[in-house]
Amino acid sequence: AQSVAQPEDQVNVAEGNPLTVKCTYSVSGNPYLFWYVQYPNRGLQFLLKYITGDNLVKGSYGFEAEFNKSQTSFHLKKPSALVSDSALYFCAVRDETGRRALTFGSGTRLQVQP
Amino acid sequence: DARVTQTPRHKVTEMGQEVTMRCQPILGHNTVFWYRQTMMQGLELLAYFRNRAPLDDSGMPKDRFSAEMPDATLATLKIQPSEPRDSAVYFCASGLVLEARPRYEQYFGPGTRLTVT
């Protein structure tokens, strides 16, 4: 079985400050990890993914994520938050067989205050 | 700019009525997913297809839900009869999978917001 945990329902950060949205996962074998963002009344948009290689993955809109195998984590980060980053963020995992659909976490609402 | 399209975007219906939601995956994508999103349950996978064949529909209530792909450009999700607890946003997503490689992204449509009264 594969699963994702996002321990924070909401993260509040001031504009210009760094942000971190946490994600831990459980999967058999090597994980394939993804972050998606959802703006109000919209579908999910792909941000970035970790497949293999460098543990720091860079994605869209200045976001990056750090893969840590020993801690089974894949935290989303951004050095300087923007008000427009306020949205719902989902972490997702797929096992290396590729036979399964992505399993999503419960989502973390990011609120960036001006 | 290729996108997944879903119709209708909003649907309000009365309990007991049949509801049909449609999805047009991105042209060339061979895998289609149906998800349901609610505040309480978050994102739940209902079913998914590869090359039009159902691979997994274990997340779908079998007695009232059905999912099909009549052709490669259309996926449908039907609820009959609908119940108030089916009120949710239903998302379709598509992806291109080659030889079961797990690295592909899933591209989501805008969703159908269903309200059953």
Structure write-up:
The complex is a heterodimer of chains A (114) and B (117). By secondary structure, chain A is mainly beta. In chain A, 0% of the residues lie in helices and 53% in strands. Chain A has strands spanning 3-5, 10-14, 19-21, 24-26, 31-38, 44-50, 56-58, 64-68, 73-78, 87-95, 103-104, 108-113. In chain A, a hairpin with a 5-residue loop joins strand 5 and strand 6 (44-50). The mean pLDDT of chain A is 93. By secondary structure, chain B is mostly beta strands. In chain B, the strands form two sheets. In chain B, strands 2, 4, 5, 6, 9, 10 and 11 form a seven-stranded mixed beta sheet that branches. A four-stranded antiparallel beta sheet of chain B has the order 1-3-8-7, with no helix packed on it.
Radius of gyration of chain A: 13 Å
- Radius of gyration of chain B, in Å, reads 14 Å
Proportion of residues in extended strands of chain B: over 45%
Largest sheet of chain B: 7 strands, mixed
Question: How many distinct beta strands of chain A?
Answer: 12
Query: What is the subunit arrangement here?
Result: heterodimer
Into which percentage range does the β-strand content of chain A fall? over 45%
pLDDT average of chain A, as an integer? 93
Low-confidence stretches of chain A: none
The main pleated sheet of chain A reads as: 6 strands, mixed
Distance between the termini of chain B: 36 Å
Structural class based on helices, strands and sheet pairing of chain A: mainly beta
In short:
The complex is a heterodimer of chains A (114) and B (117). Chain A has 114 residues and is mainly β. Chain A has strands spanning 3-5, 10-14, 19-21, 24-26, 31-38, 44-50, 56-58, 64-68, 73-78, 87-95, 103-104, 108-113.
Topology:
The complex is a heterodimer of chains A (114) and B (117).
Chain A: E1 3-5, E2 10-14, E3 19-21, E4 24-26, E5 31-38, E6 44-50, E7 56-58, E8 64-68, E9 73-78, E10 87-95, E11 103-104, E12 108-113
Chain B: E1 5-7, E2 10-13, E3 19-24, E4 31-38, E5 42-50, E6 53-56, E7 65-71, E8 74-79, E9 88-95, E10 107-108, E11 112-116
Parallel strand pairs in B: 2-11
Antiparallel strand pairs in B: 1-3, 3-8, 4-5, 4-9, 5-6, 7-8, 9-10, 9-11
